[in-house]
Specification:
By secondary structure, the chain is mostly helical. It has a domain of 85 residues. 58% of the residues lie in helices and 0% in strands. The two termini are 32 Å apart. About 10% of the residues have low confidence.
């Protein structure tokens, strides 16, 4: 599955053509399609990035798997709608997410933080390449989501 993802992403990009440029090289959608703004898609990704981290910290495997999949879906939408995003950046962000999905299924804690940090670094590399390096993603501090429980169901305390 790992080796097929970059090829599939490249194939997808090749089938949809090239978008026109704007202030941010990736941010100009085709004029004949109604889509979310790239900044809206990225804002959703940023929220999911934080939720992914909280799920990792609490070893909430179901939420980890869910958020990693939704993140890959959002990147897929960005690639389809903003067709000149370089495939290398999408692949670099997708690969750690695939690893995190696998870890969630097997409950493997060995590389969770490493894979999350690789995902975060891939986001920042893409921002640099897109001319928006001032948008720097980092580890979430304090929960933005006081209205969501991150501990897995039937768990009294976080794993130690």
């Amino acid at each position: 599955m790992k080796s097929a993802l970059p090829f599939a992403t490249a194939l997808l990009l090749l089938t949809v053509g090239k978008a026109v440029g704007g202030d941010v090289p990736f941010a100009e959608p085709p004029v004949d399609v109604k889509v979310s703004n790239l900044d809206d898609i990225m804002g959703k990704i940023q929220l999911r990035h934080a939720k992914l981290w909280y799920a990792i910290q609490q070893r909430n495997w179901d939420l980890l798997d869910y958020e990693a999949k939704r993140l890959r879906d959002s990147f897929g939408n960005a690639v389809v709608y903003y067709r000149n995003i370089p495939v290398d950046y999408i692949s670099a962000a997708a690969m750690p997410l695939v690893e995190l999905e696998t870890a969630a299924k097997t409950k493997d804690t060995s590389n969770l933080e490493r894979d999350f940090m690789a995902f975060t670094a891939a986001c920042n590399a893409c921002h640099q390449a897109g001319g928006v390096g001032f948008i720097e993603i980092k580890l979430p501090g304090g929960s933005l989501f006081g209205n969501q429980e991150f501990l897995p169901r039937n768990t009294q305390q976080p794993p130690g």
